[in-house]
């Protein structure tokens, strides 16, 4: 039976177990005088039956599907004669795909060597056996689980607690998925980075002032030798992020103060979601807005006052990115400002302070940790932002602090290093992983720093 | 603040006395409603600090205060008592326009502080609140140092030119609030680190640091233990020498201990106002008697 059908069957059996459990608990309750004489509600008995039916079967199904393919492959290859045994990884893959193609009918059997054709048949047979065995095992497990649960139902059974424990485990598993994914990503980036640092010294990467990742593929090719100094990229990232924050922090903070303290309820209910829509605009839209509207505008402005502005400038990318992260600052700041107790405002107003004095001297200091958190979050977002800078900031790795020149950022370089056809063991490609690692460490440090600040300067106002 | 110079019209003359009489007569005529429409006792005094007539407060369409008229005399402690929800806190918050911070709240009537109309559109609310300070139910020190808490008002209003002057204001205010000896060695520690009673005295010090004429207290002891309460009550008696005080309280013993006159509110109306002793020994109105003898409240 195919896995899809098997799952369907499983669902039907689990539903059956549920209803059988439900009916049994009602049947048990009736002679006792109602469901209040049961330890748990009938729903919990039914859920328990369904869980007993589903969980062992699902666990076995998962393990089976995870391992049966590799076991079968091993079996098939072991059956091949010695001269056809694969010797290295590539011939292993070749032989295997040959067998699989024959088995699936994509390759006629008379096109390949006889042992291969035999192996293909073997493969087919093994697969069928496996599927059959799986079906039988699953059905038996479902039956046994359901029957076991059915037998154990009694008025004293603590089904409610058991369901609770299973749910708790389920929630924990879901939380683990996110954590394990993060760990997996970090490890893969880390290992590739280590490979990169085997080719290029760490110090060259961290302190080199020259970035030109083009390396020669062949000895006779005309290309630069490759220079992997990341400093210009860091400078570019920092420059653009700084411009973005210069835009987003004042605008975001002041709009948050307006929304939280001055705006009437009606304005607030309209303006706050409207501001948050900014965060929902796809970054690629911001990107062409920056490249097609803002950058030429800045260039025109610069020319009219006699400045030489590159057509792709850090300023254009930074400004647009600043607009993009306004909602991060304003939304968080608005939340923390609103969270400052009314008693603080009353106290200050009651002493004859004006609204703006109250905001400046009482509310702002009390809300500062939260505001700092919002700003650092926005900064992490700015550092990691890709699309806007790809489209508006350019590729030239200039080491400059002049916002009117083109710069490039870490994220842009990662994109250019990994797009297109690449071989995966050159220093050029591996550099992307090292850059990713640096980016990750930077934002991680900023987040830890933000948490630390929030903890340290939190003003206790209750 | 020099209030004597701000008197732009005589605060109470024959004219007003006649008007008060008329109000009392009108109230007497509408006595057949089930609500206590008529205020009994002596709500008015000669030469009052605050003269409040026909005060009505609405929250959106709900009327919270119905035609309350009373006077608060100079250097007098007036306590406002009554069951929960009777409008005494709302009334108190009208006296320095703290109700302005509530969008849906509207106030009607004549409210005067020494002849100054409190709800005059040309009036500077900020200045009014410097003259009429407020202490709140829950101690609400700012999350700043003790020194900065007290110096907050004087700094905003520019009351001190030099650091030395400011130090003096802070010390005097803390002394008046009876807190100086307890905190003089840790003026730069956070105000929120004090105990509840100390925090409330800090809030009182903060209020009197701007030299208000009137101090409003909205159940200042309700969050405090009996010892801290006793200290605050003692403090109120001392402060009444230099300030006019209006205090909302749920404790009748407290009203009896600290106040000169007591006003009893019921369902948004002023039922009775008299000398504190009279209210607690010979209440004129049945509702007052029922409340102070504990039949409801």
TrEMBL record, chain A:
Pfam families according to UniProt: BPD_transp_1, DUF3708
Domain of life, source organism: Bacteria
InterPro entries the record matches: MetI-like (IPR000515), MetI-like_sf (IPR035906), Phosphate_PstC (IPR011864), PstC_N (IPR022182)
Main subcellular localisation: membrane
Protein keywords: Cell inner membrane, Cell membrane, Membrane, Phosphate transport, Transmembrane, Transmembrane helix, Transport
Subcellular location: Cell inner membrane; Cell membrane
Gene3D superfamilies linked to this entry: MetI-like
Membrane-spanning parts: 6-22, 43-67, 131-150, 170-191, 238-262, 274-298, 318-341, 362-383, 430-454
Residue ranges occupied by any ABC transmembrane type-1 domain in the UniProt entry: 234-450
The keyword Transport belongs to this UniProt entry's keyword annotation: yes
Keyword Transmembrane among record annotations: yes
Membrane association type: Multi-pass membrane protein
Family to which the UniProt record says this protein belongs: Belongs to the binding-protein-dependent transport system permease family. CysTW subfamily.
Protein function: Part of the binding-protein-dependent transport system for phosphate; probably responsible for the translocation of the substrate across the membrane.
PANTHER family: PHOSPHATE TRANSPORT SYSTEM PERMEASE, PHOSPHATE TRANSPORT SYSTEM PERMEASE PROTEIN
Name the UniProt record assigns to this protein: Phosphate transport system permease protein
Source organism of the structure: Alcanivorax jadensis T9
Organism placement in taxonomy: Bacteria, Pseudomonadati, Pseudomonadota, Gammaproteobacteria, Oceanospirillales
Automatic annotation (TrEMBL), chain B:
Biased composition (Polar residues): 1-14
Gene3D superfamilies according to UniProt: P-loop containing nucleotide triphosphate hydrolases (3.40.50.300)
Keyword field contains ATP-binding: yes
InterPro entries: AAA+_ATPase (IPR003593), ABC_transporter-like_ATP-bd (IPR003439), ABC_transporter-like_CS (IPR017871), P-loop_NTPase (IPR027417), PstB-like (IPR005670)
Spans annotated as Disordered: 1-46
One Gene Ontology MF term: ATP binding
Keyword 4Fe-4S: no
SMART domains: AAA
Residue ranges of every copy of the ABC transporter domain listed in the record: 50-292
Keywords: ATP-binding, Nucleotide-binding, Phosphate transport, Transport
Comp. bias intervals (Basic and acidic residues): 17-29
Annotated protein name in UniProt: Phosphate transporter ATP-binding protein
Species for this entry: Alcanivorax jadensis T9
């Amino acid at each position: 039976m195919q896995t899809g059908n098997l799952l369907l069957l499983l669902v039907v059996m689990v539903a059956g177990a549920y209803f059988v459990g439900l009916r049994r608990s009602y049947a048990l309750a009736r002679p006792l005088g109602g469901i209040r004489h049961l330890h748990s509600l009938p729903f919990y008995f039914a859920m328990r039956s369904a869980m007993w039916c589903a969980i062992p079967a699902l666990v076995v199904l998962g393990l089976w599907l995870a391992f049966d393919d590799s076991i079968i492959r091993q079996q098939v290859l072991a059956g091949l004669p010695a001269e056809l045994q694969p010797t290295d990884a590539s011939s292993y893959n070749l032989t295997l795909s040959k067998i699989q193609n024959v088995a699936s009918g994509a390759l006629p059997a008379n096109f390949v060597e006889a042992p291969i054709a035999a192996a293909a048949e073997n493969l087919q047979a093994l697969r069928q056996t496996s599927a059959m065995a799986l079906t039988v095992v699953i059905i038996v497990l479902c039956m046994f689980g359901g029957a076991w649960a059915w037998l154990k139902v009694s008025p004293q059974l603590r089904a409610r607690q058991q369901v609770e424990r299973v749910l708790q485990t389920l929630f924990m598993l879901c939380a683990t998925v996110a954590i394990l994914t993060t760990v997996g990503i970090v490890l893969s980036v880390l290992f590739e980075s280590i490979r990169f640092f085997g080719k290029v010294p760490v110090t060259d990467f961290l302190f080199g002032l020259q970035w030109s990742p083009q390396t020669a593929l062949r000895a006779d090719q005309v290309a630069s030798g490759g220079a992997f100094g990341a400093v210009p990229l860091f400078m570019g990232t920092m420059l653009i992020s700084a411009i973005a924050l210069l835009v987003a922090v004042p605008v975001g903070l002041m709009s948050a103060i307006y929304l939280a303290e001055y705006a009437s309820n009606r304005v607030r209910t309209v303006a706050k979601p409207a501001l948050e829509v900014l965060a929902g605009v796809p970054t690629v839209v911001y990107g062409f807005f920056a490249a097609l509207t803002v950058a030429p505008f800045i260039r025109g402005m610069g020319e009219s006052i006699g400045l030489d502005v590159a057509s792709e400038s850090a300023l254009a990318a930074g400004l647009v990115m600043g607009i993009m992260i306004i909602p991060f600052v304003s939304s968080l700041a608005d939340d923390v400002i609103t969270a400052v107790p009314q008693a603080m405002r009353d106290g200050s107003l009651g002493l004859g302070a004006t609204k703006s004095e109250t905001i400046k001297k009482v509310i702002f200091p009390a809300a500062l940790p939260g505001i700092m958190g919002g700003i650092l979050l926005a900064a992490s977002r700015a550092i990691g932002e890709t699309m806007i800078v790809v489209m508006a900031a350019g590729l030239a790795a200039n080491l400059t602090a002049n916002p009117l020149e083109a710069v490039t950022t870490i994220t842009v370089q990662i994109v250019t290093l990994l797009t297109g056809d690449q071989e995966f063991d050159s220093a050029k490609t591996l550099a992307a992983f090292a850059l990713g690692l640096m980016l990750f460490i930077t934002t991680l440090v900023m987040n830890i720093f933000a948490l630390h600040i929030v903890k340290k300067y939190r003003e206790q106002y209750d | 603040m020099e209030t004597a110079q701000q008197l732009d019209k005589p605060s109470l003359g024959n004219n007003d006395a006649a008007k008060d009489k008329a109000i009392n007569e009108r109230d007497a005529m509408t006595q057949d409603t089930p609500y206590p429409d008529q205020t009994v006792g002596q709500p008015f005094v000669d030469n009052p600090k605050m003269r409040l007539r026909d005060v009505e407060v609405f929250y959106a369409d709900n009327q919270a205060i119905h035609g309350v008229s009373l006077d608060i005399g100079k250097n007098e402690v007036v306590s406002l008592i009554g069951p929960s929800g009777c409008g005494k806190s709302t009334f108190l918050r009208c006296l320095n326009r703290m109700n302005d911070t509530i969008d849906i709240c509207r106030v009607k009537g004549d409210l005067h502080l020494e002849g100054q109309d409190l709800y005059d559109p040309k009036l500077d609310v900020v200045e009014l609140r410097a003259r009429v300070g407020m202490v709140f139910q829950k101690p609400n020190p700012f999350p700043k140092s003790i020194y900065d808490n007290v110096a907050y008002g004087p700094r905003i209003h520019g009351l001190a030119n030099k650091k030395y002057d400011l130090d003096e204001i802070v010390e005097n205010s803390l002394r008046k609030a009876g807190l100086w000896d307890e905190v003089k060695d840790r003026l730069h520690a956070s105000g929120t680190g004090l105990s509840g009673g100390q925090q409330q005295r800090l809030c009182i010090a903060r209020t009197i640091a701007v030299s208000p004429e009137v101090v409003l207290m909205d159940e200042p002891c309700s969050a405090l233990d009996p010892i801290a309460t006793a200290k605050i009550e003692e403090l109120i008696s001392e402060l009444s020498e230099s300030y006019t005080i209006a205090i909302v309280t749920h404790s009748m013993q407290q009203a009896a201990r600290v106040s000169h006159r007591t006003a009893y509110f019921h369902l948004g109306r002023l039922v009775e106002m008299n000398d504190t002793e009279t209210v607690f020994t010979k209440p004129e109105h049945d509702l007052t008697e029922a409340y102070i003898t504990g039949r409801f409240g």
